């Protein structure tokens, strides 16, 4: 027996503050409540932004991203596909007595993403960190500590592997060679003739 297809619209709650020219490409496929989104920001499909979260102006929030309560994203930030933010350092479903927790039983831990930072697809950002101005978080990274302005971080846990200023147009490295990040994994023995970079 086939079940008829029924389109269910996910909510954009009445308490959401949207700036001018915000583009939500598939409004029936987002879940926004109690948040603020500033001018000219673009929101992809299957994005959830919870109450008391804010997204600055001219940001791009790619599909399947979760921005929880307490996350502040400043202007001109790029968030890749499937990025996950958290807001609790020690999450629990129940209290010591086994009853379900309520909002009164835990404290939101805030996270800040500064202006022009970029976070690659499938990165996870733990509660309480600050990602610095123009910093770059590599795809799949797990950010457990603050990221300094202009730093490039990657890995699990995320570690500094470079500086974005060395890869910008106009910089000798950016003009003459493609960005080459350090290779991870076993290193070759000295003198073996294999690249250890």
Keywords:
single chain, 197 residues, mainly beta, UDP N-Acetylglucosamine Acyltransferase, domain 1, eight-stranded mixed sheet, six-stranded parallel sheet, 20 strands, 3% helix
Could you please describe the fold and organization of this structure?
The protein is mainly β and 197 residues long. It has a single domain, classed as UDP N-Acetylglucosamine Acyltransferase, domain 1. The chain has 1 helix and 20 strands. The strands form 4 sheets. It has an 8-stranded mixed beta sheet with strand order 2-5-8-11-14-17-19-20, with no helix packed on it. A 6-stranded parallel beta sheet has the order 1-4-7-10-13-16, with no helix packed on it. It has a 3-stranded parallel beta sheet with strand order 3-6-9, with no helix packed on it. Strand 19 and strand 20 form a beta hairpin. The chain is globular and about 50 Å long. The C terminus is likely disordered.
């Amino acid at each position: 027996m086939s079940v008829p297809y029924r389109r269910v619209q996910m909510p954009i709650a009445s308490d959401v503050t949207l700036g001018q020219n915000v583009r939500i490409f598939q409004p029936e496929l987002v879940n926004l409540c109690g948040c603020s989104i500033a001018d000219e920001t673009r929101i992809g499909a299957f994005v959830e932004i919870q109450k008391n979260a804010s997204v600055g102006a001219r940001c791009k929030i790619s599909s399947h991203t979760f921005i929880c309560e307490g996350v502040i994203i400043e202007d001109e930030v790029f968030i890749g596909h499937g990025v996950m933010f958290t807001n609790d350092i020690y999450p629990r479903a129940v209290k010591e007595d086994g009853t379900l927790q309520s909002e009164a039983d835990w404290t939101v831990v805030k996270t800040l993403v500064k202006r022009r930072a970029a976070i690659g697809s499938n990165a996870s950002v733990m509660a309480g960190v600050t990602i610095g101005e123009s910093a770059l978080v590599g795809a799949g990274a797990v950010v457990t500590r603050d990221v300094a302005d202009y730093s490039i971080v990657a890995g699990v846990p995320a570690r500094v592997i470079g500086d974005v200023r060395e890869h910008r147009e106009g910089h000798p490295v950016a003009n003459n060679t493609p960005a080459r990040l350090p290779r991870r994994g076993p290193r070759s023995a000295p003198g073996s003739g294999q690249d250890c970079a």
